[in-house]
Structures are given as structure tokens and as C-alpha cells.
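Q: Given only this backbone (311 positions), what sequence would you predict?
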């Protein structure tokens, strides 16, 4: 059983997953290959595919299709809670308990309504669903990204497995689940990276990583400096992941594949050039998207697959 992820657009046997953003750019189309037959289904509003070891799901929910369940709750908060409640119900029904990696895409992420930025509304709903499902909200949490698109439904893709991940934090950054309330009433529920274990493999998922040191944005307004700080953060997470990893040799940024989300289209060439110089020949896709803090101009997510030698 091997897992492969290629940035191509060609579907092969096994699993194919079109990212919610694949209509925006083919480089956002992520295809996971597995070499054993998959079972497919649709339940809880989620399209999913699974084998014995892991499950890949995708759900889209229109905010107008969800009724807020409490006074003052925004439609996005209600939709976010509903998406994650469905996700956790599916994982329970499928006996696939461990959430590995989540890709969250929401419209107008920095917009404000109900007295709160929409990303912060999303955090309220996500957090509530983790609590409702008796899940850990700090420590054992999945790797993730939360990215803004211009419009469209709340779209969440996820990978889950029969085996738990080893969460990885970044010593240069406060764990996001410990962020103080200046970033919103509920902290985001994700780890800086996760080591996941399909049979015979070790997969490193690095969450969306940005120019944040401690909990503060550094270099506002300077996209090149933000790129450099982001790479320093990636290096630090990779080092921490390698310390916790079972596979050898250590993970290295130059052997991973990367995707950069860039706030301003006019910065894409600069980001491409700056990151290329720091990441070498590693595959890098740059796409336009909004980032969850309005002062962040760029965010990078990365992944690598190692095979584990048999014991
Ligand atoms: C940060 O470090 C940048 O809410 O799931 C990165 C990765 C970010 C995931 C999420 C948010 C999320 O806080 C933002």
C-alpha cells in the first residue's frame, strides 16, 4: 500500500481528488494515488473514498443552506460547525477515527459581519464541533490550512486514517491552538505539521505557514521579508518533524513539494523568485488566494512522503 501525491492533472487508478480550487488553477488540483481498490460513498453530505487505512473526503456547504442554531451566530459559524460535525460523524461511522490533514477554503475570509472577521467566525464553528465530538482542541489536532477564495461555498477536504498522526509544533511560533483572544474569541484548531502513517510510509504534512513569530505577524507590507520568514518557519518545523520522525534520512525542504498562496497577483513573480532561491529545485506552485490575517501577504504549505523500511 503506497500513497503518492502528484501535482498532475491525469487521473490514474485509485483515488482522485479534485481540490475545491481546481477550477481556479490546475496547480491546485491535488491527486492522491493508492495502489489498492477504493470504496466510494456519499454520506453526511460528504463525498468520500477509502481503503482499509485511510479516507479522503470532501464537503461543500453553502452558508445560505444552514440555519444558525443560536442567537447572534453567523451563517458562516453555523456552516463551519455543521461541516465539522458531519466530518466527525462520518469518521465515526466509517471507523476511521484519526483526522490527519484538512484543507479549508472559505469565501471573503477577511470580510467582517456580525461584528467579527469571517475567519474568526469559522474558528468559532470549527472549535465548537471539536468540542461537541469530544475531540482534543489542543495538542492532538490535525495539520491544516484556511484559505480565502473570492466567493463560493465553504469547501473542506480532508484525509483521515486508522492510525493517529504525530502532531508537530514549531518552537519559533506559539501553537496556534494557544493564540491569545486578540486573534479571535476561539483559537484555530490545527497543528503546525503532522506525521501520518499509511502502511509502510511516513507522510509529513506541513500546515499553512506564514510570517508569524510567536503569535505576531512580522514584516507587514514586505512580501520578500515575509517569504524569508516563512521559510525560516518551514525549516524549523521540518527540523522538529525530523526529530520526531521514524524514517531516515531526515526530512528536508528541498525534497518536499510546496504550494504558496499569494494575496496580490502582482506579487506572484516576486514570491516565485524569492521562494525558488530558498527552496531550490523542489516543486513549487504559486497561486492567488487570500490569507487568514489581513497583514499576511503569503502562506506556504508543504508535504513529503517517505517510505519506511520494513522492520
Ligand atoms: C497562522 O499561522 C496562519 O486556521 O486552519 C495557517 C494554517 C493558518 C491553518 C487554520 C490558519 C490555519 O496562524 C494561518
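A: Predicted residues:
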Amino acid at each position: 500500500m503506497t500513497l503518492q501525491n502528484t501535482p498532475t492533472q491525469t487521473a490514474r487508478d485509485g483515488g482522485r481528488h479534485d481540490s475545491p480550487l481546481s477550477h481556479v488553477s490546475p496547480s491546485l488540483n491535488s491527486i492522491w494515488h493508492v495502489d489498492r481498490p477504493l470504496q466510494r460513498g456519499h454520506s453526511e453530505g460528504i463525498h468520500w473514498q477509502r481503503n482499509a487505512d485511510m479516507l479522503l473526503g470532501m464537503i461543500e456547504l453553502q452558508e445560505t443552506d444552514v440555519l444558525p442554531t443560536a442567537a447572534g451566530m453567523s451563517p458562516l459559524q453555523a456552516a463551519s460547525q455543521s461541516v465539522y460535525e458531519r466530518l466527525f460523524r462520518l469518521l465515526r461511522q466509517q471507523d476511521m477515527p484519526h483526522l490527519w490533514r484538512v484543507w479549508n477554503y472559505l469565501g471573503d475570509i477577511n470580510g467582517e459581519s456580525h461584528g467579527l472577521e469571517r475567519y474568526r467566525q469559522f474558528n468559532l464553528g470549527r472549535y465548537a464541533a471539536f468540542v461537541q465530538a469530544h475531540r482534543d482542541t489542543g495538542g492532538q489536532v490535525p495539520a491544516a490550512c484556511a484559505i480565502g477564495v473570492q466567493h463560493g461555498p465553504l469547501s473542506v477536504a480532508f484525509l483521515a486514517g486508522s492510525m493517529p498522526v504525530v502532531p508537530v509544533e514549531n518552537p519559533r511560533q506559539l501553537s496556534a491552538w494557544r493564540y491569545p483572544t486578540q486573534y479571535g474569541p476561539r483559537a484555530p484548531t490545527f497543528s503546525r505539521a503532522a506525521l501520518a502513517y499509511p502502511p509502510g510510509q511516513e507522510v509529513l504534512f506541513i500546515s499553512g505557514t506564514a510570517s508569524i513569530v510567536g503569535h505576531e505577524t512580522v514584516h507587514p507590507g514586505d512580501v520578500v521579508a515575509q517569504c524569508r520568514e516563512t521559510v525560516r518557519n518551514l525549516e524549523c518545523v521540518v527540523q522538529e518533524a525530523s526529530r520526531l520522525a521514524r524514517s531516515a534520512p531526515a526530512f528536508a525542504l528541498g525534497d518536499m513539494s510546496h504550494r504558496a498562496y499569494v494575496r496580490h497577483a502582482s506579487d506572484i513573480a516576486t514570491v516565485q523568485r524569492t521562494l525558488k532561491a530558498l527552496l531550490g529545485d523542489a516543486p513549487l506552485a504559486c497561486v492567488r488566494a487570500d490569507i487568514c490575517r489581513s497583514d499576511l501577504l503569503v502562506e506556504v504549505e508543504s508535504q513529503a512522503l517517505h517510505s519506511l523500511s520494513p522492520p
